[in-house]
């Protein structure tokens, strides 16, 4: 008895061109003979042509690949199969490299593709609209055993294993950094070359080592001159610089701080001179040296200093108090970029009270602030140090020492006074190491 299922298979095979007619008029008739027999049997039994077979919609959607564009791309693994489906019948199908994959017709509009070996090939589908639909097929080696092992051992990860050349590339996300090396070691037991491209998920924490220092460029310049004049029992001594400690009987003794001394002796006359010309450079001072831990993307700051009150007039003659911060304050925003790089935004601010900028309000004096501040952002590797310098503050102080009245005489008064200039140059230096 004739079964419709067998007839459908034959019709499907013929519609796909698998039974292409051989050349020659005689062979054409022999090729058409089976069709005539099938047609007669079908009419004799009063049966209609069976409808096209469609894919069961209950099948998993991952097994069905809908071909809608003239150029498609399909990725498979060895020993896997997919179904190519079109909205129209497929009279003819061709695979360029049969050693990579096989084609099996399932319905007039459905073809099953079975991957045989790793490689790249093309499948050409001829539609009823006289167009050729090309599907680029990439067949990878079977890495499902390694994927199942990694999924069972690391359930909290989301990994993808892709064959590359003679090895594999593992990408995705892991929840702990130490899992990267362990996953790589497991994959090396299966493949000679493993390319780790995994990213650690979750929030990164950044440890910041900070040093805030004041490098003093202070030059203490002192210039003074002392002398002693002896004529017999008469003498005149100038000791405003403190260089001459004792004197008498035509001789002097210095304090040991002089840098140049001389003496002229002629009989009972003697003239001694002592000169001091000094320059002193001071070193740095550490203002703060904290160590901070913060989450990537979260601002953090520290402050070393204090607050002073400010009177703020209110309505109805009342006064409120607000506090203003001063001292050393540094704000940070670290952002982890990956590959060991960190984007760091830094805003250091150093302020001190300056009474010369004070304001008097209702017999109350509010001091001002002298501030040094900078705002910058850089990208650097973990462990590198960002150095911010150049915030220099200069202060010049002069001190006049001399004998009363005598030091005030024009021109000659320079012999009886000493002027000391102190130039205090302070440079702020900030070192940040993430």
Tell me what the structure shows.
The protein is mostly beta strands and 434 residues long. It is elongated, with a radius of gyration of 48 Å. The two termini are 83 Å apart. The strands form 6 sheets. Strands 12, 13, 14, 17, 18, 19, 20, 26 and 27 form a 9-stranded antiparallel β-sheet that branches. Strands 21, 22, 23, 24 and 25 form a 5-stranded antiparallel β-sheet that branches. The chain has helices spanning 4-15, 25-44, 144-153, 178-188; strands spanning 64-66, 71-77, 81-85, 92-95, 101-107, 110-115, 119-126, 132-140, 158-164, 167-174, 193-200, 205-216, 219-231, 234-238, 244-248, 251-254, 260-266, 269-281, 284-288, 291-295, 300-313, 319-338, 341-361, 364-373, 376-381, 386-402, 417-433. The chain is built from 4 helices and 27 strands.
Unreliable stretches, pLDDT < 50, 5 or more residues?
1-61
Terminal CA distance reads: 83 Å
Please give the largest β-sheet.
Answer: 9 strands, antiparallel
> Helical residue percent?
10-25%
With helices defined by DSSP (H or I, 4 residues minimum), what is the helix count? 4
Could you say which structural class the secondary elements and strand pairing correspond to?
mainly beta
Total number of beta strands: 27
Spatial shape? elongated
Strand content: over 45%
* Average predicted local confidence, pLDDT: 77
Radius of gyration: 48 Å
**Oligomeric state of this protein:** single chain
